[in-house]
Design goal:
182 residues; mainly alpha; 3 domains; two-stranded antiparallel sheet; 8 helices; 2 strands; 71% helix
Amino acid sequence: MATLQKIRSHGALVLIIVGAAMLAFIIGDFLNSGATYFSRSRETVAEIAGNKISITDFEKSINQLQEVYKIESGRQDIDENLSQQLRQQVWQEYLSKNAIESMAEAAGMRLTAKELTDQCIGSNPSSLITSRRAFADETGNYNRSVFMQFYQAVHSEDAQNNPQLQSYLNYWNYWETAIGAN
């Protein structure tokens, strides 16, 4: 009974302590959910023409370009200087792609899937395809049969389970995207 009397006599103090605890809980919860909001903004590298570029997509593009470089050059090592150059190239590609896309959309131009396929594997493919060393014969000239063997291999069911074919599929996807952006 004496304890209840002490609580009653210090009621205002108890209410202040309970109120402060509740306020601290609410503020803490707000700051934690706010951290999630702020961390999402940290995931965005840049915004170009209204398109947000996430750090994940940017790093994925850098890795893809590194794979392209390895296949094109036949080298497996990438030093810091080359890595920086590839990073710069990816950034320039993002700038160009977003600028071109926004201008093309404004002009009402759009590349259809059929046109993209024709530019990639049609009878008269893009120079981005015909100039690739990976699709050349022993004389160094573009060879459609070499290209078609490559294309069929990377789009086969075996490509999913074969790391080498997966690397070549990434290589192909890079050039297909590059053709679509041109």
